[in-house]
Amino acid sequence: MRNILIFGAGRSASSLIRYLLSKSNEEKLHLTVADLSLNLAKAKTQEHPNATPIALDIFKSDERKKAIENASIVISMLPAHLHIEIAKDCLEFKKHLVTASYISDAMQALNEEAIQNNLIFMNEIGLDPGIDHMSAMKVIDEIRSKGGKMLLFESFCGGLVAPESDNNLWNYKFTWAPRNVVLAGQGGAAKFIQEGTYKYIPYSALFRRTEFLEVEGYGKFEAYSNRDSLKYRSVYGLDDVLTLYRGTIRRVGYSRAWNMFVQLGMTDDSYVLEGSENMSYRQFINSFLPYHPTDSVEIKTRLILKIDQDDIMWDKLLELDLFNPNKKVNLPNATPAQILEKILSESWALEPDDKDMIVMYHKFGYELNGEKKQIDSKMVCIGEDQTYTAMAKTVGLPVAIATLLILNGKITTPGVQLPIKKEVYEPILKELEEYGVIFNEQNVPYFGYNPDLF
């Protein structure tokens, strides 16, 4: 039996483990699932004869090294900053490594050593990053193979609540890390290119500069810009492209509503609020409002945000119970962002029967034989339940498929890498279709821009 060692048995590992166990007999696989919580590892392996759940503290190097030494290949589903020690051990014991995380500088620094040892360190092989890379490179390579020249590439992705579970005014629930949602867009201006001109959107304006998208059968969406759309310009070979934009998908109206929190300062994570532990929700929002001897917190909120009481934006705030004087924050030394996350988590938690949804949308503009053309590629994936979510499927399945391809010698290029080579994306995208992760590509009129206006 070939031993696949998996570090981390959290939410993203469910579909990954299920897939590998379903292949374990025919592929002669044994899974060792290591997590700080033995119960979590046991829950994911479900007493399968080809799996061994173990409790393992990643910071205990002897335990970690022993587990890696006994593995045929290693998967890390831990937080990104924990990958590096695992990667160094994989070099020591000559083991391939697969993660779904962005390539850090520390990971990239191991590239030469990985190549020298003929080891594959596959990263960014989850959803976003991951499926976005693979589905984009497939179409870009096809366009180039025909002699086409890329002019425009726009890519959007979002984790949302499925239509059948969409029952709040925000049309949104937390399907992944709430903290990442609260802090989205911070850390510098969003940067992208339109018609050869660099464009920047400061955080204060980010959620009022949105693009609209239509997905057949699912209606209208909006997208706000990612912080750095140009990160993959050279990686994709798009240094000469005129337009390059990456964004996050939400339902229409979400961004305008979220902007209320931004303008009030409630998403700030840079300072703590005195007395936060005993603060009520009402006191929390009032701490961002000017003093007035007679106006209520509600009136002050509407005045500062310039919204009327019959505006849907007001109803969205009321739905969150933000003005409740009896609910306590109960978080000591908390930042505004941490308090907002707690409040939203009460309203936006997925119910036991709720399903999540992943939406991905690419636009490819190109020139072929003097004619400008465009391909739109769209993918929608609906989760099964709270264990096998759409997020877990789209993150975990590419990791699992890539692991098996590496183990079977189908992916051979060594080094620290992301999945942009044909030997990687072609078989993975093909197999993902069997699991309902399908991209529908359409030829549409070239979107383009009027350069004179930009």
TrEMBL record:
The species is: Flavobacterium nitrogenifigens
The record places domain Saccharopine dehydrogenase NADP binding at 4-121
For this UniProt record, give its keywords in alphabetical order, as a comma-separated list.
Oxidoreductase
Task: Name the InterPro entries for this protein.
Answer: AASS, NAD(P)-bd_dom_sf, Sacchrp_dh-like_C, Sacchrp_dh_NADP-bd
GO CC annotation terms, alphabetical: cytoplasm
Report whether Nucleotide-binding shows up as a keyword of the record: no
GO function terms (MF aspect): saccharopine dehydrogenase activity
PANTHER family per the UniProt record, alphabetical: ALPHA-AMINOADIPIC SEMIALDEHYDE SYNTHASE, MITOCHONDRIAL, SACCHAROPINE DEHYDROGENASE
Pfam (any one): Sacchrp_dh_NADP
Q: Which residues form the Saccharopine dehydrogenase-like C-terminal domain?
A: 126-437
In Gene Ontology terms, what is a biological process of this protein? lysine biosynthetic process via aminoadipic acid
Please report the name of this protein according to its UniProt entry: Saccharopine dehydrogenase, NADP-dependent
